[in-house]
Specification:
mainly beta; seven-stranded mixed beta sheet; four-stranded antiparallel beta sheet; 38% strand
Length: 163
């Protein structure tokens, strides 16, 4: 089974984010050369987003890696806290985060999928995060506050795998 995850948005691009010129092409994760994520608030989920990027806490990245999940790499992310965050959450210490980079691919049409690469972590042309049961099981204890999980169905009987 595949799922689309819509994680908590706890912030956005900070001033040090570096974006590759992409002309008329839709902004995708590959265009973000350096991600600086500035927190505005945080409900505590350990999977976060600012379109088209995803980040997870270092411990969740370690759990995903040790579980043998395919189709994912982790990169560096620069973290900062806005003045608003510091006022709303005085004394909060943020954990270490890593950028989650989906390597798999899938085509979505509503809650249906096709042309799935077979990886545990994938994204589509809109940079939506798609994961398997295996990844969802790893993530569930850490995304309970504000992550929307939507189950997907294959468009055909071949489970949507690329042939």
């Amino acid at each position: 089974m595949l799922y689309v995850l819509e994680p908590e948005v706890a912030g956005g691009f900070g001033e040090h984010t570096k974006i590759l010129e992409h002309g008329d092409e839709v902004l995708q994760a590959k265009h973000i050369l350096h991600l600086h994520y500035e927190f505005e608030g945080w409900l505590g989920d350990e999977l976060l987003t600012t379109h088209p990027c995803y980040l997870v806490t270092e411990r969740v990245a370690d759990f995903i890696q040790s579980s043998g999940c395919t189709g994912v790499e982790f990169g560096k992310v620069q973290i900062s806290m806005s003045e608003t965050f510091l006022e709303l959450k005085p004394g909060v210490t943020l954990p270490s985060f890593k950028r989650l980079l989906p390597l798999g691919s899938v085509v979505l049409d509503g809650d249906r999928y096709t042309n799935w690469s077979g990886h545990d972590v994938s994204s589509n042309e809109k940079s939506e995060l798609v994961v398997t049961d295996k990844v969802l099981k790893v993530l569930q204890p850490y995304i309970s506050n504000d992550c929307i999980v939507t189950a997907l169905q294959p468009m055909d009987n071949r489970q949507g795998l690329k042939r």
